[in-house]
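TICKET: design request
STATUS: open
ATTACHED STRUCTURE:
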């Protein structure tokens, strides 16, 4: 056996010992199966090594001596001195460098390929999003809020309030309106410009403006629905005594269905 073959074998044993848990039979079986194919552990040390790791996996008591130098081995296979000497040898260091180099070159190549692919994918996604963004205004145009074309007409009870709503949401167009309850809402909302979104305005009020805006007044609350063959719309309407109307739900342009809009 050449020196080089023996050094290679010892280094292989050291690597196996530092890497694997020989108390696990499936690990030892894997090592021995590979050994049957490759015949690496052929020296007297290698044969001792194979027998030792099999004994450990099988739970057989060993003399706990290093299979290389015969000194006591804490791990029952190779003592620390041999591990250090063989693992730190010039031969071992040169082997490690030789094995690392191709791996690095390979990684660098793969890394570059991945990067090119990744950048291409990102570029495609950006182009796709851009084309999507350009097509959005056509598909989902921003429409001004729908507003009433009728004038303010004061009301003094729920029937009169209902009659005013029916002008804007007539039964012949499929609208159903039902009275919900009396409630109160902010005075300022009924003074907005037609088409204004109450929440949008309220977020921008100054402290002075808030003082006047957030007083409350009594309102008539109605539910409006329009059920058609392929669609259904529902909403809530509030009418104050001046006949001003707020609408929330699907009866504006749907920009903010969770907020009232000034409708009339
Ligand atoms: Zn030893």
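STATUS: resolved
RESOLUTION: sequence designed for all positions
ATTACHED SEQUENCE:
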């Amino acid at each position: 056996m050449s020196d080089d073959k023996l050094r290679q074998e010892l280094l292989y044993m050291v690597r196996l010992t530092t890497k694997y848990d020989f108390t696990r039979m499936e690990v030892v079986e894997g090592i021995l199966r590979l050994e049957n194919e490759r015949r690496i552990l052929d020296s007297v040390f290698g044969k001792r090594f194979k027998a030792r790791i099999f004994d450990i996996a099988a739970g057989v008591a060993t003399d706990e001596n290093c299979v290389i130098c015969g000194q006591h081995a804490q791990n029952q296979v190779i003592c620390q001195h041999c591990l250090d000497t063989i693992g730190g040898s010039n031969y071992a260091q040169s082997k490690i460098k030789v094995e690392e180099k191709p791996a690095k070159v390979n990684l660098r190549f793969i890394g570059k390929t991945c990067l090119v692919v990744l950048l291409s994918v990102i570029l495609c996604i950006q182009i796709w999003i851009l084309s999507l963004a350009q097509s959005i205004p056509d598909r989902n145009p921003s429409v001004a809020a729908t507003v009433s074309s009728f004038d303010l007409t004061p009301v003094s009870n729920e029937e009169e309030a209902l009659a005013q709503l029916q002008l804007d949401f007539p039964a012949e167009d499929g609208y159903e309106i039902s009275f919900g309850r009396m409630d109160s809402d902010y005075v300022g909302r009924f003074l907005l410009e037609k088409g204004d979104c109450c929440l949008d305005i309220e977020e921008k009020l100054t402290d002075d403006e808030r003082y006047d805006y957030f007083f409350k007044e009594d309102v008539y609350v109605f539910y409006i629905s329009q059920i058609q063959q392929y669609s259904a719309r529902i909403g809530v309407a509030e009418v104050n005594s001046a006949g001003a109307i707020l609408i929330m739900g699907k009866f504006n342009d749907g920009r903010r269905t969770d907020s009232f809009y000034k409708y009339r």
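CLOSING REMARK: Residues 158-262 form one domain. The mean pLDDT is 86.
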